[in-house]
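Example record

One chain of 179 residues, shown exactly as stored in the release files.
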Amino acid sequence: MRLTAVGRFFSGESQTVNGQTRLQGFGHLGCCSLFAIQRVESFQPHTRSDLDYSSEAGFYETGGCDDAPDHYQRYVSLQYPDGQVEHVIAEQRKADNGEAAWAFSDPQRVAIDSLKPYYPNQVPVLRTVKKTPTRQVFRWKNGQNQIVVVVTRPYWLSFYAASRSVAWVSTTIKEIGCD
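Predicted structure tokens for this chain:
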């Protein structure tokens, strides 16, 4: 949904810790700020069938190991780590300006492109594990490990799109060890 609300901050002071500035002072150990909504000025439901509204960004998707238990070796890229949000917005802008227009229609290419920084000089051959209009999950067998790549069209990215088109972006990359 899109919402315009009027409210008041009752708590929250600007604090810089380890180089990051945040509003803190309320909640568990003063971790957060408190905003109380006093009035809703406008409300627009936002229920598009081409966007992924989940908040977990593919974290729970598994590619799994064939007939064997799996365990996570490492999270190569975890749902929007520090700096990743800006990277995803930049990917949307590249698609919007035509530099990477294929990101609107080729989720597999998006997945392969997102693996390049983590697996240089390798040519991944991806297999589709799950396919919906809003999310695709790919698996790549790399030696003894399975690499799982989740590509979505996240709802929040629609706020940064130049048109109604939202680009496919990689939201999670996991390396799974198979026993």
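Notes: The mean pLDDT is 83.
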